[in-house]
Recover the amino acids of this structure.
């Protein structure tokens, strides 16, 4: 069935990104919003927009019941969940099915089979796919934990089956640490996810995080679209992603891709999904988990494959067969993504909500921005601090790093703090440039650099005189209010006009 | 016009004068003569050419005493010490003696209080926990002392600069 | 020699685009500007910037002497001329050579050999490449013109050898028209180019304009990067360009590419260049002329090849060999470019310089913008009215048209008139969508549509109530100035603040 | 508040009232009741929701009597007939009788004059040639008459709205 109207059950850049895809496909869009988001771009750019409730997600974007009601009343045939919020909620997917509204993603059944980490590990075994050694079911007791740990050997990792974002996760290097870690991980998981189920796996040292994008239609076809390298993480949160990985060759890509496709097919998976792996020094890869939705970092795959994943998601949900075969997937060039956050890296990564008083965005060759902000937008304190995704494409890794740095130099966000400078630091770092990265890389860089922050760079000294002059000129203009209003034609008397005229020429 | 600007820990004396030509400013910075060619492209965005070198100076809008600008990609905080400026007449922070106010550094919701009114606290001890964007942050005492006032309670919404408590 | 500093002898979007490339390659940039361009983006984004003179191009961007002086004094090792202005001026290229400053383009000699249309036609013959039947030298007399015309048969085309932009060009369908056309074309060419040299060629009916991008290094290697379809023209000026062409298959692409490479090599051509062809109904192609510079429409080639032509231009000028061979060139997907002009299509395409009071620019997947404007910029009356180039990429032609329409819907330019709506009209036209286009297509569309302009579209009627409401709300807010200043935090008293607070929520 | 707005050749009577809630306006347009939810995102950019339908209304800044806005992608000119508005008190264009001023429709340079002062001219006859962006445009007489005033000469720079000549 071809959709004529889709409801987007999300906010921010991803809501806008899905709206753009719908518009390109001639499909009308329905936006939903909380009180904090009435002035958000995804509301204005949609064809229809309906209020959900107050700012907290539990009263708005997590209200599946309200969202389904709006979908029904507005006549939307499908719901795109984006990422986060309800995107991996099997109950919501099921409620959509029952309401006769297509959930753009896998079935509730496939989501359940792959959403729990322990069940996904069982599925991996069935699909004959390498995973980290360890348990595939919840640990029944501390004794069982000791037993498994001895079997696979320390160091080990305790993880919550329902986990995400590093919660309920503990690295254990020696037997003595296991008992207390077991108790605390269980209770943390219970609090965070409503399930205290934890399991043990072998800790892979200095692994890379490599993930495979898969697409499966409802006719049994499934393909992989190459890998993404997501090793640059802070506290298990991805910061920079790229495609392809500098260490994955064609042969490894094929093996990982085949494993990912096997897993997806074994669970009857449909639509877009991502199979995450750890890759160790020796080039062995281990299944980590599956994300049963579109990922934040999907654009890097789009740039190297030339495909549009959201278009494909919609076509698949409409019941269309995949328009391409595995051998039609061509990878070309290199892409990189920076997740721009409202946070202050120089101050413990404190979040920094508030009004964006100044915004200069980059453009030009090889630059894509998936943004959910504008000058004047008040970044709400209620959600994830992601402002925008800056994505660059170039023929080689070296050139895409240079291009991203160029774009970062053009970027200014004023009024709130952002992590723009963090990206500059990483992209200038020799280890990053040589692709010597693993999931611990960024934490090491941050620790190393914290010692050298006192030194002013040559660039700062260079800019000192113009900066002081600029401040003095702004101050002079501020006296008559011109600094703030000189760009509009409406303000003030002739004296002010004359002064501004001189400035603007 | 004379302005004193504190930037990067240095106090710079600036003498500024608009020349007859369009957008040309003759200045001296700490006694050194500089000619700058300036154009305000739009509010807060200044294109500055000094000796052939081109700079983008972007002012971050703020009602606060401390201003912030970006010179190229460098974020620089500054304070204007112009005697004619209203803002500099406000009392500055002062030393470590006397009562100190504890301010919210960002908007958020108060999750809980870690000290009660009247309690004796140590420097760097957490006083108020604020949550924003799924992260919790402790606002810490700037000095050893006693909590004499508490202006917020759990569940309150605060914006940056709000006074949370006073430590004496 | 690796360059460390390059002067960009141009303005607008192309100056900014070259600066971005330089920054990506770690090369410092020197901008030059006229008095009309002091506040232009290319000035602020450069490392150094120097004034050339008053607004008229003859006193600024065409002052080769001044530009060379600035290059020498600033220590630039090379000059990138962009397109237009001095880019095809062989005397300037020679002056650069003599001053020991590298001109990023072909040698003066190669430029002379291919810059004159008659000499280029001779070169085409030498390279064994099809061209339109007709003369290859200036017509000495009207008698000779009659003779050539009889030989090739009417209709014929009179053209200026030094021509461009449709000047000195006459279509002649019957013998009786030749005499007066000959005299007027000669004098027009004399006035426009300082040379009255004209020649005759067979008029190709309803041709497509197809051009081949070539790149040649200084070591004898030359490759072609596929074609661009530029048939959507108004008065011989390109309006929309795309790559690939819907009617060029792999075999034809190869034949045209080989012909273009042969021509370039026969003249010792180096750097980037474009060989223009006419393609007739039967699939035969004829050499038209060669453009010895980077073209406005180069981005569509960049998007389908994944390459960066300005990077490659700079590498070639540095003496590097081409980093890829013909067989490494992979075309993928489809790209389209709209040239956004400050002109009023509803009013005879009158130019529309002035202040841009409002600017909303598109973004997101598959959208690139090479822009030279910002909100508040005063578009000077002294130059070409091009504001920006909007370029889209997608897997198929159908999808890239939909994507461009989506981006055009996001675009708002206020304060001056633009041709944004013209693109919407073209991209919705059935003939364009079916790729039934030739160089006369747009003029026919404009004539056809002029009859139906009175009808209001359904969309307009839909928007009437919200538009009236919006106007009323703006007017209410205007009373206290809030409509203009509500985005800044500085304005006015508490009453105004309260009202605005209500609006902004 | 009552406003009359002329848009697309139609005069619409609007009654507008801000409700107590944030950003909600109750309006009637030609007697038909409408509730609109409005947010000004930044100067001139309005997000409007009417009956669940979302619109982007963008005001083109202008000091002229005729305003322009974009409703979505539709460019619409309008004139406010609010009696309280200063602008509507200016005299409107008037008929074809009486003296008519010839105005520049765009900035540019005067290239040449096609009629001299005192000359008799016909409607649509070119009077002044203006050049901008390499294109020349003739400004034509709005009616049959006589050129009584000429305010510009070849080489002059004009901006949009400048009076070039008067035809009686």
């Amino acid at each position: 069935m071809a959709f004529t109207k889709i409801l987007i059950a999300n906010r921010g850049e991803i809501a806008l990104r899905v709206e753009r895809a719908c518009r390109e496909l001639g499909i009308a869009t329905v936006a939903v919003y909380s009180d904090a988001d009435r002035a958000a771009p995804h509301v204005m750019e949609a064809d229809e927009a309906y209020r959900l409730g107050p700012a907290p997600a539990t009263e708005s974007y997590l209200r599946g019941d309200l969202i389904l009601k709006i979908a029904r009343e507005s006549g939307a045939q499908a719901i795109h969940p984006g990422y986060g919020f309800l995107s991996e909620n099997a109950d919501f997917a099921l409620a959509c099915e029952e309401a006769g509204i297509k959930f753009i993603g896998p079935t509730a059944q496939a989501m359940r089979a792959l959403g729990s980490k322990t069940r996904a590990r069982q599925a991996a075994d069935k699909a004959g796919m390498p995973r980290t050694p360890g348990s595939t079911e919840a640990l029944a007791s501390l004794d069982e934990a000791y037993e498994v740990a001895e079997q696979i050997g320390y160091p080990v990792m305790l993880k919550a089956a329902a986990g995400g974002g590093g919660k309920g996760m503990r690295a254990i290097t020696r037997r003595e640490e296991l008992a207390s870690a077991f108790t605390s991980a269980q209770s943390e998981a219970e609090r965070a996810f409503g399930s205290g189920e934890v399991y043990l796996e072998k800790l892979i040292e200095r692994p890379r995080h490599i993930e495979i994008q898969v697409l499966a239609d409802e006719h049994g076809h499934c393909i992989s679209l190459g890998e993404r390298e997501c090793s640059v993480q802070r506290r298990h949160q991805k910061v920079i992603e790229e495609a392809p990985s500098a260490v994955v060759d064609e042969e490894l890509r094929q093996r990982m891709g085949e494993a990912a496709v096997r897993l997806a097919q074994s669970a009857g998976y449909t639509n877009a999904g991502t199979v995450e792996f750890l890759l160790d020094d020796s080039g062995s890869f281990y299944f980590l988990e599956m994300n049963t939705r579109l990922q934040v970092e999907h654009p890097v795959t789009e740039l190297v494959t030339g495909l549009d994943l959201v278009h494909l998601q919609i076509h698949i949900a409409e019941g269309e067969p995949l328009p391409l075969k595995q051998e039609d997937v061509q990878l070309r060039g290199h892409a990189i993504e920076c997740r721009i956050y409202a946070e202050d890296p120089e101050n413990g990564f404190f979040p920094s909500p508030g009004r964006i008083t100044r915004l200069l965005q980059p453009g030009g060759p090889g630059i894509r921005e998936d943004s959910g902000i504008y000058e004047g937008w008040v970044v709400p304190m209620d959600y994830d601090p992601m402002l925008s995704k800056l994505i660059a494409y170039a023929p080689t890794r070296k050139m895409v790093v240079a291009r991203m740095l160029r774009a970062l130099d053009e970027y200014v966000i004023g009024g709130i703090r952002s992590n723009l400078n963090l990206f500059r630091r990483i992209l200038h770092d020799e280890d990053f440039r040589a692709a010597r990265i693993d999931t611990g890389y960024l934490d090491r860089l941050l620790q190393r650099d914290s010692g050298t922050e006192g030194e002013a760079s040559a660039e700062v000294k260079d800019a000192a005189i113009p900066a002081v002059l600029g401040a003095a000129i702004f101050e002079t203009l501020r006296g008559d209010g011109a600094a703030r209003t000189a760009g509009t034609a409406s303000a003030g008397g002739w004296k002010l006009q004359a002064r501004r005229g001189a400035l603007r020429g | 016009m004379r302005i004193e600007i504190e930037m990067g820990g240095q106090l710079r004396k600036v003498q500024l004068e608009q020349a007859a030509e369009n957008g040309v400013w003759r200045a001296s910075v700490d006694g050194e003569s500089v000619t700058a060619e300036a154009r305000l492209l739009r509010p807060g965005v200044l294109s500055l050419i000094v000796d052939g070198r081109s700079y983008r100076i972007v002012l971050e809008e703020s009602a606060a005493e401390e201003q912030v600008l970006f010179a190229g990609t460098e974020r620089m905080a500054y304070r204007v010490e112009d005697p004619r400026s209203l803002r500099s007449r406000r009392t500055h922070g002062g030393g470590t003696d006397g009562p100190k106010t504890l301010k919210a550094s960002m908007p958020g919701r108060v999750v809980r209080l870690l000290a009660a009114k009247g309690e004796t606290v140590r420097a760097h001890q957490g006083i108020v926990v604020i949550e924003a964007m799924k992260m919790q942050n402790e606002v810490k005492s700037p000095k050893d002392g006693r909590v004499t006032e508490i202006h917020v309670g759990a569940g309150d919404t605060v914006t940056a600069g709000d006074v949370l408590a006073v430590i004496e």
